[in-house]
Specification:
Structural class: alpha/beta
Number of strands: 18
Low-confidence stretches: none
Radius of gyration: 23 Å
GO molecular function: alpha,alpha-trehalose-phosphate synthase (UDP-forming) activity
Protein name: Trehalose-6-phosphate synthase
Family: Belongs to the glycosyltransferase 20 family.
Largest sheet: 10 strands, mixed
Mean pLDDT: 95
Oligomer: single chain
CATH topology of the largest domain: Rossmann fold
Number of domains: 2
Shape: globular
Number of helices: 18
CATH architecture of the largest domain: 3-Layer(aba) Sandwich
CATH class of the largest domain: Alpha Beta
Helix content: 40-55%
Distance between the termini: 32 Å
Pfam family, one: Glyco_transf_20
Strand order of the largest sheet: 5-6-4-1-7-8-9-12-11-10
Bound molecules: 6-O-phosphono-beta-D-glucopyranose
Length: 483
Amino acid sequence: MGASLVVASNRGPVQFTGDSDETAVPRRGGGGLVTAIGPALADGGGVWIAASMSDADRRVAASRPMLTVVLPEGRIRLRLLSPAQEVYDAFYNEIGNRVLWPLNHCLFDLARGPAFDGAFRAAWKHFRTVNEGYAAACADAAATNAEVFVHDYHLALAPSALRRSRPDLKIAHYTHCPWPDPHYFAVLPTGRELIEGMLGADLLGFEVPRWAANFLRCCAALGHQVDSAAVLAPDGRRVQVRSYPLGVDATQLRRAAAAPAVAAGRRRLSSMSGDAVVVVRVDRLEPSKNILRGLRAFQELLTRRPELRGRIVHWVLAYESRQQVPEYQRYAGDLHSAVAEINARFGDSRWTPVRLATDDDYPRSLAALSLADMIVVNPLWDGQNMVAKEGPVINEKDAPLLLSRNAGAADDLAAGALMVNPFDTAELADAMAAALDMTAEERAERAALVREAAVRAPPREWFGQQRRDLAEAAGLQASTVHR
Ligand SMILES: O=P(O)(O)OC[C@H]1O[C@@H](O)[C@H](O)[C@@H](O)[C@@H]1O
C-alpha cells in the first residue's frame, strides 16, 4: 500500500556507520527537520526518501531497499537512494555545495568564478538525473492523492518531474536557506530550469517573507506572472508561495540541555574560562557564517578596551562540514590562522583569548550557549539560523544576542537582539562593547523578548501549518482545473 505522506530530502534522519550491513548502526543527525516531521511520518504511515551519504548507508540500502528506523519521534520507514558515486558527487558537491549553496547565500567570488563551463553542464545533467531518481522514488512510494514534501535546493527539480508522472499528488517544496534577488540569481545559467522545476509544486515554502519575495521577483524577471503570494506555472497552475519561520521546541531543547553530558561540558568550559566574560558562537564551519569577521570584531574590542585583556574569553565552536569542498578547506585554514594570530598578539601564558573547537559536539555546544555572557550570530546571509533562537532559550545569564540583520531569525528577534550589519566589523565591536556595558535590567528585558519570539512556531506547528496550506493549495488547483 502506498504512503499517504512522503518526505524527500538529501540528508535523511539517520546516517549509518559500521563495516557491514549486519553491524550497521544508525546515528541520528542534528537538525530540526526530523523533530518537525518525524512524528507525522511515524503516526501516519509515511515514508522518508533520502540519499545514502556514507559507505555504510550504501551497504544498508543495497540489502534493504526499505528499512525502518526507530527514533524518539517513532518508527520511521526510510528509503535510501544510492546513485552511482560520481553522479552523486556531481549532484551534492559540485552543484549543491559549490553552485546552489553559494548562489543562495550570494557567496560567489564573481571576479574569479564560478566557471560555468562544460564541466558544469555535465555536473548539471547528473543533478537532473538524481532529481529524476527522487521523483521516481516518490511516485513509487506515494498513495493516490498523497502529500509529498520535498526539501531544499538539492531537490529543486524534483517537483516538476514528479508532477509529470503523478499529477494526482499534492506537492510542496521548502527552501531552508535564503533566496537571492533577481540580479544575483541571473548569474546561474540554468536558473529558469531550476525555478520551473520548483513550480511543479502546489506550495513553495521559505523561511521568511524576504526570501519568498526574492523568489517571486526572480519568477517575474523570467517572465512568469506573479502576485504577492503566487506564481502562474508554465502549465497554468497557480503555485502558492509562503513563508514559515521555524521556531524552537523549548521543552525538547531544555530536556536536551539538562542531560549529564551537557552538565559535564559546562564544568569543563567553566573551569577553562574561570571568571572571564564568556563570548560564545556556535556554527557550522563555513564561509556564510562569517566567523572571520566575528574574530576581527573581537580583536577590535580587545584593542579598544585593553582593560578586558585577561578577563574575557571567546569560545568559537565551529564544527567542520563539507570539508571535501575546496572553498571550505580554505576558509577553515584562514580561521585557524586568525585564531592563532589573535592569541599570539593578545594572549599570554595565563590567558588564551580565543578558544576554537572544530569537532561536532552537541552537548558541548548546549553547555557553551547555556553559560554564555554574550552570544554572537553574524552570518552574511542565513535562511533562519536556529542558534540565534536556541541559544537564548537555554542561556542562564540573560546573555545579549548579537544578530546579523541578514539572518532570517532577525525578523522575529530584532526587538530584543543587538542588530548588526554582518559586513561591518566596527559595528559588531560596538555591539560587543554595548553588550558588556548593558545593565542587568536591559539584559533581562531583551532576553525575555528574544525567548518569547524564539519559541513561536515550534517544529510540529511549523509542519502542521504547511500541511494545512498544502491541502488548501492543492484544493484550489483542483477547483481551477474542473472549472
Ligand atoms: O550539506 P549538509 O551538511 O547536508 O547541509 C545541508 C543543510 O545545511 C543547513 O545548514 C541548511 O540550513 C540547509 O538548507 C541545508 O540543506
